[in-house]
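FAQ: What does a ligand-bound record look like?

Like this one, built around adenosine-5'-triphosphate:
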Amino acid sequence: MSDVLKIVDLHVSIGDKEILRGVNLSMTEGETHALMGPNGSGKSTLGLAIMGHPNYNCTQGEILLNGENILELEPNERARAGIFMAFQRPVAIPGVKMADFLRHATTNVRNPERKEGEDLIPMREFRKEIKANMEQLQMDSEFARRYVNDGFSGGEMKRAEILQLAMLQPKFAILDETDSGLDADAVRLASQSINEIGHNKMGLLIITHHDKLLEHNPPNFTHVILGGRIVETGGKELAEELHAHGYDRIRKQYPEAAKVNDESEAEAEAVV
Ligand SMILES: Nc1ncnc2c1ncn2[C@@H]1O[C@H](COP(=O)(O)OP(=O)(O)OP(=O)(O)O)[C@@H](O)[C@H]1O
Ligand SMILES: [Mg+2]
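The answer part, i.e. the structure of the complex:
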């Protein structure tokens, strides 16, 4: 049976501010979904809520993986269940080497029952795999010995996120602006790599403001989020329309959601 990730009427707050106001979205393995929307509309919030970020409080609704509500699971348990997120802004973990981080993460995801301290996947096997993936991503082998994201350039961080995707082979992957900060050649490589790793295989939720990442990963569905709600869903032509013409039509067609979005952005700016 195919794996299904289903989000039902999801409401998410940060502190006492409601960001997501009833999101519904269903993905089946092998499908690619594009999630688009103006700045501050709630795209990253949705990804982080699916992953279980502790600051993102799900006040209503459900996130179901193959029918089971995962809202009570910790982020690491969600990862073991097959969910992955490539972050918009990956954090550095000084002191933890990429290779050690990936060897632990890969072992834990492949062997979800593993207890801390039990065997890791054999070094030879792991080395072979990481080397092949790094070559494909045109990453210098030296990266494996560096601390996770520590001093990485913007583009290097995004490549490191794709390397994790390749190693962890999740059922569902949320890619949050995996193209941001990449130069033109690097975006093409990222788009091709994501295609090879997951397109038509995993369930992909691709968050992007540009069309290049979708070039090799044409979405079966495009969702537009505005003011914390998915206001429209279409096919790949919807993504094309938004890339070409922006969000004017969407804002006019959904004035209530546009108002929430603008207020939320204004508030965020006031804080800064
Ligand atoms: N930790 C936080 N504290 C307060 N407000 C937050 C926090 N995280 C997000 N928000 C607010 O939630 C709203 C949605 O943010 P989110 O990061 O999900 O937007 P986005 O759609 O990913 O935007 P972008 O395209 O700029 O990445 C914004 O108004 C933002 O300021
Ligand atoms: Mg974002």
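Follow-up question: can I read anything off the structure? Yes, for example: Residues 14, 19, 37, 39-45, 55, 88, 264-265, 268 surround adenosine-5'-triphosphate (ligand 1) (CB under 6 Å).
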